[in-house]
Write a structure and sequence with these properties.
binds zinc ion; globular; Nucleotidyltransferase, domain 5; alpha/beta; five-stranded mixed β-sheet; 11 helices; binds 5'-O-[(R)-(carboxyoxy)(hydroxy)phosphoryl]adenosine; 2 domains; single chain
């Protein structure tokens, strides 16, 4: 018998729901992005995000069920992200999921958002547990995290490195803001960098002494200095700057972030003898990262398509199947944990 789970994700600024069968087949995947709203503020405003989830989540869930051609009562479980993330945003998803599961007496599963990003790979027809096999090194790079996690088996994780300050996605978002580009910054920097033509002295590649940990805040500061030196920052909407010059700097900045991620990941692969490398999180949608890491990795690289790297409900419904298979369900008193860790 197959198991169909509704996955709900509201940890940050995307309102998402999906129906997933057996941890691998996606029946529907609805994501309502709030980025247009937050773009007006140049970053995510937590209270705006949670209020937006409040109005959007029920229509998103309704659409996910309709596209899967299912009624609530035909589901085999309801899963929701309970951390890490913004408390107010997580609460909307958690309480909605709890209410739905309780009303229909369905199994209820709480999922760590980072574990969701890992299980996105299983939705893509890969089964990394078969090929290349465990242990897998997982690079989860998003707006809130830059974590290297060693996955020994389903549910078995060790956090081996993380960012000491800004996450890689945050470096993209803050860098884009300094350069007067849009939000979210990752796709914007990638877009202009693809058209860049010219030389810019490389940005420093930040390293943390005697550690595999990452650090991105110094890189952001050196971008800020260059932007100030050229008169691009503070931003002045009445002054136009040469987009070609900005593209060249954006490309150098992107190269420094991606190179830093790849350097640390390759060192960790060597140290922990992982059999494969799995990428997840919004930054894993970056085309330069995807291309370079696949070329430079000595082990097979598993990377979901970009839409499965950024936040979605399918990764939550997918991860939940592996929990349910092992009889793991949440209690009705499950709470949100904004700083939840994995491993
Ligand atoms: O995983 P995600 O959707 O949400 C969080 O869990 O944070 O990641 C969002 C982050 C943002 O910082 C965004 O700028 C970045 O992922 N991002 C990218 C790209 N697409 C999204 N960064 C670089 N290149 C991209 N193509
Ligand atoms: Zn995420």
């Amino acid at each position: 018998m197959t198991v169909k789970i509704l996955g709900i994700e509201t940890s940050c600024d995307d309102t998402a729901a999906s129906v997933v069968e057996d941890g691998s087949f996606v029946h529907s995947n609805i994501v309502a992005s709030q980025s247009g709203i937050h773009a007006n503020f140049g970053g995510i405003v937590p209270e705006v995000a949670s209020r937006q989830h409040m109005t959007t989540l029920v229509p998103v869930v309704t659409q996910a069920l309709a596209e899967a051609n299912l009624e609530l009562g035909q589901l085999d479980g309801i899963a929701v992200t309970n951390g890490p993330g913004l408390a107010g945003s997580l609460l909307i998803g958690l309480n909605t999921a709890k209410g739905l599961a309780m009303a229909k007496d369905l199994p209820f599963i709480g999922i760590n958002h980072l574990e969701g990003h890992i299980y996105a790979a299983w939705l893509e027809g890969f089964d990394p547990s078969v090929e290349p096999g465990f242990p897998l090194l997982c690079l989860i790079a998003s707006g809130g995290h830059t974590d290297l996690i060693l996955m020994h088996d389903h549910g078995g994780y060790n956090l081996i490195a993380r960012s000491r300050d800004d996450a890689a996605g945050e470096a993209f978002d803050k860098g884009a803001r300094v350069l007067g580009l849009g939000f979210p910054g990752g796709p914007e920097i990638q877009r202009v960098a693809e058209r860049a033509n010219g030389y810019e002295p490389p940005f420093p590649r930040p390293k943390v002494k005697d550690s595999l940990d990452f650090s991105f805040s110094g890189l952001k500061t050196s971008l800020l200095r260059r932007a100030q030196d050229r008169g691009w920052y503070p931003l002045n909407p009445n002054v136009e700057h040469d987009p070609k010059e900005i593209a060249i700097v954006a490309a150098a900045y992107q190269a420094a972030i991606i190179d830093t991620l790849i350097h640390g990941t390759l060192k960790a692969l060597e140290k922990y003898h992982a059999r494969g490398l799995l990428l997840g999180g919004g930054v894993a949608a970056n085309s330069l990262l995807r291309r370079e890491i696949t070329e430079r990795s000595p082990v097979p690289v598993v990377v979901p398509r970009p839409a499965m790297c950024t936040d979605n409900g399918a990764m939550i419904g997918g991860a939940a199947w592996f929990h349910l298979r092992n009889g793991q369900q949440a209690q009705w008193n499950l709470d949100v944990i904004p700083n939840l860790r994995l491993g």
